[in-house]
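Retro notes, item 3 of 5
We never archived the inputs for the zinc ion complex last cycle. Fixing that now. Sequence and ligand:
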Amino acid sequence: MVNYKDLGLVNTKDMFKRAIAGKYAIAAFNFNNMEQMQAIIQAAVETKSPVILQVSSGARKYANQTLLRYMAQGAVEYAKELGCANPEIVLHLDHGDSFELCKSCIDMGFSSVMIDGSHFPYEENIALTKKVVEYAHQFNVTVEGELGVLAGVEDDVVAEHHTYTQPSEVVDFVSRTGVDSLAISIGTSHGANKFTPAQCTRDANGILVPPPLRFDILEEIEKEIPGFPIVLHGSSSVPQDLVAQINQYGGKLVDSIGIPEEQLRKAATSAVCKINIDSDGRLAMTAAVRKVFVEQPGEFDPRKYLGPARDTLKALYKLKLENVLGSAGKLAK
Ligand code: G3H
Ligand code: 13P
Ligand code: ZN
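Structure as it came back at the time:
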């Protein structure tokens, strides 16, 4: 049993409280390898932001849970070495699907876990989430639950349509489970194709415009649980310059579209205090790697393409922290 505090990590409690009061949000960036971790930490240190490093089931399969945990421990030391005396770094399990998985992460030093019971019937979701909360809280580990289902692929489960979170359920869910934060469904979804062209309109230049997020549902939820930390998954914006770069250098992304940054900026000023971003990072790395491969076909040193990929990723994350989430300069001390 390792407690996250001994690794220099923090849970989400205090940072979420400050984010809600200060009308900004904390970024949760997924990481699977060293370059992604370095880019996240460099961006967080340079912008003086608290940050959440999150580990998905895909990351655990790809990189190994133990290695990722040690990498997060290294991230704390790395942040200090980069000049941040008191980094606020959370190591979070993204989309945990069982009590056993959450327990194994808590036992090895994760400071926060998500138990995603959103695909189960309501009472089963409550029972599972409550069980994880009871275990996690013994060690001060914070727990994120989810109500409502995002369209697209989530947790290896494919849902054709969104099942928006029902505001009438949130008080009951939060009070009976004891969760520390709640992920909701208001129109975001995972991946780089969040809407079909048929779901969008077109602007005067023929560019696809996605349907707006359901801010009306968010407002109703906030009325039910005032000041309670809300989480948005599936919040990549799918920057069109990255999509264009990927396609320019031989990629084939079709109709890729995300959540406009203005809408995320607006969400960040509400009780939404954690915004999950993974796909945009994937796009940034892929765009940079493809450019090197096409422009320097003789290059075969991985550092010569993973280095530019890391730099592009860091630049993207800095923009997110400064201009979208508003967490720059928000470290406690
Ligand atoms: O929740 C979805 C994240 O983007 C992680 O996806 O399991 O492919 O790493 P992954
Ligand atoms: P995106 O696919 O929009 O980046 O969402 C990531 C996410 O929600 C991880 O849990
Ligand atoms: Zn997610």
